[in-house]
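Hey Z.,

So I finally got round to the cytidine-5'-monophosphate thing we talked about over coffee. Here's the setup:
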Amino acid sequence: MSGPVPELEERAERCADALRDAESVLVASHIDADGLTSAGIAARMLERAEIPFESVFEKQLDDDAIAGIAASAYDTVLFTDFGSGQLEAITEHEERGEFTPIIADHHQPAEAETAYHLNPLLEGVDGGSELSGAGATYVLARAFESEAGANKDLAALAIVGAVGDMQTTDGELTGANVAIAEEGVEAGVLDTTRDLALYGTQTRPLPKLLEYASEVYVPGITNDSSGAMRFLDALDVETRTDGDWRTWADLSHEERQAVLSALIKRAVRNGVASEKLDALVATTYTLAEEEPGTEVRDASEFSTLLNATARYERADVGLAVCLGDREEAYDAAKELLAQHRQNLSSGVRWVEEHGVTAEEHVQWFDSGDEIRETIVGIVAGMALSADGVSREKVILGFANKSAEESKVSARGSHALVRRGLDLSEVMGEASRSVGGDGGGHTVAAGATIPRAEREAFIAAVDRLVGEQLD
Ligand code: C5P
Ligand code: C5P
Ligand code: C5P
Ligand code: ZN
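And the result:
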């Protein structure tokens, strides 16, 4: 018993035993960064054990998707980063002898029971903030390995999954995720150091890094491109090489210190409260074996690169990058990333221009066909720090899924969760009340509903959130 998460060890051993009995395995996973890293861990683990496998990715594990999986020739299906919430449908197929399910997930489990089910929430570990789908799959990979510690190198992918699911609190991973990060450090694949906590330290040119830093607002620098450049040019630090701006990753330790202390001085002079400034520095999760200055060196940038693939029907590209491709698939991923960034920023701009409609406890927007249903959740989360959007209320973002159905993503805050908010329950109950389905986590959840039921759905969500916050 030497797994990273002792509470899950027994379940992990049971799932690992079931896997060892499999002749071949179908890995079914979710189309986001956590789902791709989960599949990457599963793929490596099976490859090392010489068990043949194939991977499939789904936007949502609905009844049709499960039926499609059941119709495949595989007798063993490993579900990663989803499955727990769809246990009822999965066990129906299991009872008909169509496949043996093994589940490594962190979403709110449904009532049904199954023999091979690895989920932190079943053992009192918070699946919303302490362990991701990739983390659960990593726990399985450690139980499954044939030589002690052989799969510890997969911890790097598990951390990318956790960061991609936004499991950091005040910039730090907590609980079970920390134990996994420590194993990654031991294996030499991860560095955890305290450094500047802004998004884009590896790939953004310095002025863009500072200009786009929504984490901490510094007057005259944040959202001010010429202000950011003037600030950098005034420093006694080489911020350009041959006229091109350097990145944070290019700077030496001393140069970083100089930029950081000037930034703090400037912020204090402009009246930024010192508690806010604490957020400038936090633990950063660096993939030690990757080339500095690339999209795969920092866990947060890596996760965005992955989201840019599978959410655009190119999970094959994202999985190849997880498995170490730094040539063809990597180049393809970078191209998808450029488009993804444009889609996100035009999505947020759309919300700013059209505004949100405020109900008593929630606010919402319906982007129709303007924002892809696979990224409307990311846009809703980013919109929480946009102009005209309240940070104190839950946000719902709708997007058309088909002529009849809408996809809806809900995002809250940790402060609301502390007051009783559970969006998984709200989205599940409200969607089912109008003939749809949904689920997720306390702070972030989603659903599919009939388009004609939007108003009734919003009313149900508003009422349920109100009851929870009482
Ligand atoms: O399906 P999955 O668990 O991978 O998705 C989690 C989703 O919840 C991600 O899109 C993530 O960005 C979102 N989330 C969030 N805020 C949090 C935690 C998670 O927006 N604090
Ligand atoms: O990692 P995730 O996909 O959740 O991040 C959402 C997007 O927000 C990223 O693709 C990134 O481009 C953007 N982002 C940003 N500035 C930040 C944080 C994230 O532009 N400070
Ligand atoms: O799609 P979105 O990013 O909004 O998803 C947020 C969370 O809700 C994810 O964890 C996702 O797996 C979950 N979800 C769900 N059922 C749905 C839609 C989303 O469990 N129908
Ligand atoms: Zn996840």
